[in-house]
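Pilot study result, target chain (363 residues):
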Amino acid sequence: MNKNLIFFLPVFKFGGAGNSIFRLCTKIDTLKNNIFIISIGKNDYRKKFLNLSNKIKLIELNSGSTIGSFFKLRKIVKIKGYKTIFISNQHYANVISIFSLSFIKKIKLILVDRIDISELKKYYNFSSFIKNHLIYLLVKFFYRYANAIISNSKSAKKDLENVTKSKVININPPSLVKLNKTKRRKNKRKKIIILTVGSLVKGKGVDTMIKSIKLINNNVIFKVAGEGLYRSNLEKLIFKLKLKNKVKLLGWIKNPEKLYREADIFIHASHQEGFPNSMVEAINFGLPIIASKCKGGTGEILSNGAGGDLFPVNDHISLAKKINNYLKNPYELNKKLKIARRNIIKYTVDNNFKKYMNIFNKI
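Predicted structure:
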């Protein structure tokens, strides 16, 4: 049966959620299905979607907030002729989608939670405490009205089921377009390149990584690929710790493949995660991983430490020790990398696509 597939992601910026939706759409047959992509404000993937197919319809709402899109969503989804499936992404947007659409009988509503529900228990100021607490309560009582709920990782699935008392389906994001089988060349440089890829926000723990570099004995360069509101704070920290020659904030890199190939080791220090695509990409390019033991998909990707080293959240001293151990003797972490590489086939686009289509056909 032909379908209207409507994907709603309020902030459609370059990153994990945007990549996941775009990669899923590359596999959907646009001759048999109508695809609508809704964002609030500019969609960074506009050109990529239009190059993919001229049959994909992009809708950029001019509402000032997600709440402001409430009534506009109801108008957009009333598309006749086909079975309509609305796929909402991120918990705050999911709550709005439930209130907007769940009582329209012909609409099938799928909610995708890309971050562990435990994130709503963390906050950095009073306003975020109020906002997160309200969203948490709305998720708890209203997610049950969706036709399907999807979570990115096994641990997030379990946590969300405990909160909502509803069935949650685990589908890992399509982190990889294809598996990389090219062997890495041995590093002949004098300096070791340490890499991280992610947004410059407090929750990504970039400050923890920078503090750890201060404690590294070897001659290293730490490259940070990403952009965000926390950049100025990080620049001040780099200046304070006198790390200007060691830490490089590269900004947003659309295609970080070259960075992965040049680096020697990948580190990740999030306070909480959904499913860090950058870690899977790093493993795919043969980079050993050191990551924080946070909620979300990190432990799953690293097989709870069998596929890489884990350290406590916010503990820059432990992270520095892990990095120094690797620099002294890379054998143990490279041995773990082999285990991680065996598991990443399940994070491919094809695997993700099959699971989503199975849900689309059943509901």
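One observation from the pilot: DSSP finds 14 helices and 13 strands in the chain. A full batch analysis is planned for the follow-on phase.
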